[in-house]
Amino acid sequence: MTVVDDRPETAAPAPRRRPNRLLALLRNSWRQLTSMRTALILLFLLAVAAIPGSVLPQRGISPEKVNQYFTDHPDLAPRLDRIGAFEVFGSVWFSAIYLLLFTSLIGCITPRLRDHIRALRSRPPAAPKRMARLPQHTVLPAPPGGAAAIAEVLRKRRWRVEVRGNEVSAEKGYLKETGNLLFHTSLIAVLIGVALGSWYGWSGNRLLVAGADNSFCNTRQQYAEAKLGPRVDSADLPRFCLRLDDFQARFLASGQPEFFNATVTVDGPDEPTRSANFSVNAPLRLNDASVYLLGHGYAPVIRYTDRFGNSQISDEPFLTTGDMGLTSEGLAAFPDANVDPATGQRKPDEQMAFTGIYLPTAPEQPPMVRSQYPTERNPVLNLVAYRGNLGLDAGIPTSIYQLDQRQVRTGKVKEVGTKLLRKGETWTLDDGTTVEFLGTERYVTLSIRHDPGATPLLISCGFLLVGLMGSLFGRRRRVWFRVTSPDPAEGSPTGGSSLMEAGGLPRTDYPGFAEEFAQLIAAVNGDERAAERAGVSADSSDRAGVREGAE
C-alpha cells in the first residue's frame, strides 16, 4: 500500500546568522575601556606607577646615582633595570597605562559632550501633571500678568525658560556638566602637554665656574648630564654660550639661605650679547631654553710648581657635602707635572694629585672638619698630597672630583703628606715642589632645559581648575509654574482669582534648593510673605515625602 503525503510543502527556516564573536569582543572591550570606572582605575594605576620614579634614581635625571645604586645593590639593581625601574617614565608599561588613560578619557568625553550639546539646544521639559509629588511644591495666587510675568522674572535670574500656554518651564545649572566636561578635556590637554615635553623637550645639567676661561657653550658634549627627547637631535640645540661673571649670596645668622643671584654674559649665534641676572625663583629666559639656578659652591684655586719650576693652576670645583656651612670636598690633579723641559718626557710615577676639604668658615680650634658658616669668614683648605701614576692615561673613565682608589690600593699612588693652608700660604713638599692656595672662585650648578609642552600644560591646568570649580559648585535644578483658574464648584480661598501652582526638582544633591525655591516664589509674587509660606509648604512636602518613603 502506497502512502501519499499530500501536505503542502513548507519552506525551510532560514539559518540564523551567528554573531561575530570578534566584533562583539571588540565592542564590549571598547565599552569597558571608555567607562568612567576604567578611567578612574587607570588614573590610579598611573599614580601608583609613578611612585618608583620618585623613589628610585632615574637615568635621565641623575645617572651617577643610578651607578651608585648598582654598586650598593648588585643583586637587586639588574632585576629592577630589566623592568625599566630606572627609566620609569619612558618604560613600556608606564607608556601603556598613559596611552590607555588617554584613550579612555577621549572615549568617555565624546558621548557625554554630544549629549550635553544636545541638552543645551533642547527646550526645558514640560511640567509634570502632578507637581504635588515634587520635592518642592506650593500653590499661591497667580501674579498679575500670568505666565508671561513669571517667565520674565525667571529670565532676569538667568533661567532657561520655555512658555507653553499657561505653563512655564525653567531650567538652570548646566555649569555643572560643562565644568565636568571642561575638567576632563583639560586633563587630556595636560596629557598632551606632558607628551609634547617628553618628545620634543631636552634638558642638561652643568657646573659652571666663574671666569672667562670656564665659559660654557650649549652643546651636548659640554653637559655633565644631558637628556634629549626622542624627536630632538644634538644639532637641534640652540646655539649660545654662558660665562659666569659674579655670584652673590646672603645668609641669615643661622646659616639659612636668604638671597642668591648669578650674573652671566650671554652670547652666541642665536642670542644677542648681553649681561643677565637670574636667581633661584627667577630663571634666565633664552630663545628656546631656560636656565635655572640649582646650587652653588667654591672652587679653590691651587698653584703647583714642580721640580723643574713649571707652574700649573687648578680651579676645579669642590662639591659640598650637604651641611649648612658649605663644607666641600674635591680633587686637584696635575697629570702633566714634572715634565723634563729638555727632553719633553714625563715620568708617569711622578704625577701629582691633591685631595682636600675646603671650609669657608673654619672653627677656631681643631678638629677642622666642618665649616661653621657658608660665607668665607675664616677660609681653610686641608690638603692631602699624592704622588704616582694617577691612571688617567689608561682610557678608563674616572671622576674629576675623586681620586681613583684603585691606584692607591695597588700602590701606584702613594700619600706624601698633609697640610692645612690658608689663603696665600705655600706648602713645600719632600721633593722641593710647592703648593700654594691662591683663593677661591665661585661656581653655580645650572639646569638648562626646553619644554615646549610647558605653556600648553599651564593653560590646561588653569582650565582644569576652572572646570573643577564649576563641577563642584554647579547645581542642576528645574522649576515649573502652572497658572490655573479655580473651579467655582469647589470654592476658592483666594476669592475666585487665578492660582499659581509651582514645583521644583533638584537634579543633583543640593541642600539649599528649598531656600532658593522660596526666594524664587517671593520674586515671582513680589511679596516677602510668600517666601515664608513657600518655605512652610516645602518643609511639609519634605516631611510627607519622608513618611511616604518610610511606609
Description:
The protein is 32% helix and 29% strand. It is an alpha+beta fold. It folds into 3 domains: 33-115, no CATH class; 124-172 and 475-487 and 495-537, TATA-Binding Protein (2-Layer Sandwich), CATH 3.30.310; 202-450, no CATH class. Strands 4, 6, 10, 11, 12, 18 and 19 form a 7-stranded antiparallel sheet that branches. Strands 1-21-20-3-2 form a 5-stranded antiparallel sheet. A 5-stranded antiparallel sheet has the order 13-14-15-16-17. A hairpin with a 5-residue loop joins strand 11 and strand 12. The protein is elongated. The model is unreliable at 491-495 and 530-551 (pLDDT under 50).
Topology, element by element:
Blueprint: H1 21-33, H2 36-49, H3 51-55, H4 63-72, H5 76-82, H6 92-121, E1 136-141, H7 146-156, E2 160-164, E3 167-172, H8 175-200, E4 202-209, E5 216-217, E6 225-228, E7 241-251, E8 257-268, E9 271-278, E10 284-286, E11 289-305, E12 311-314, E13 319-320, E14 328-334, E15 351-359, E16 380-388, H9 405-409, E17 413-421, E18 426-428, E19 434-450, H10 454-473, E20 477-484, E21 499-506, H11 513-525, H12 528-550
Antiparallel strand pairs: 1-21, 2-3, 3-20, 4-6, 4-19, 5-7, 7-8, 8-9, 10-11, 11-12, 11-19, 13-14, 14-15, 15-16, 16-17, 18-19, 20-21
Helix pairs in contact: 2-6, 6-8, 8-10, 11-12
Region (Disordered): 531-551
Domain ResB-like: 36-518
Biased composition (Basic and acidic residues): 540-551
